Amino acid sequence: MPNSFADRYRAAMRETGCCPIEAGLLGRLADHECAHGRLPGDRTAKCGCWPQENASVITLAQRARPPKGARKAA
């Protein structure tokens, strides 16, 4: 097979000097990642970048207040 993946990988490696998959030349994963490096459907913690997932939002019962005796910044 004259145009195997290994041949294309080696040629891209010579061209970029680094991993062509991470550089986005082969596999094109970087074109489909969000700003946090996640792909759609990724099992890592949700970041809210993809429309099918909602980021975790924690609603506080009340507004946080500084402890009594705390000094305000000047």
Describe this structure in words.
This protein is mostly helical. The chain has one domain. The chain is built from one helix and no strands. The longest helix is centred in the first third of the chain and has 12 residues. The termini are far apart. The model has no long low-confidence stretch (mean pLDDT 76).
What is the total tally of β strands?
A: 0
The SS-based structural class is mainly alpha
Helical proportion? 10-25%
Strand content: under 5%
- Which residues sit in consecutive blocks of at least 5 with pLDDT less than 50? none
Q: What number of domains?
A: 1
Task: Please give a handful of descriptors for the protein shown.
single chain, about 70 residues, mainly alpha
Kindly summarize this structure in a few lines.
This protein has one helix at residues 5-16. It is an all-alpha fold and 74 residues long. It has one domain (1-61).
List the helices and strands and how they pair.
Elements: H1 5-16
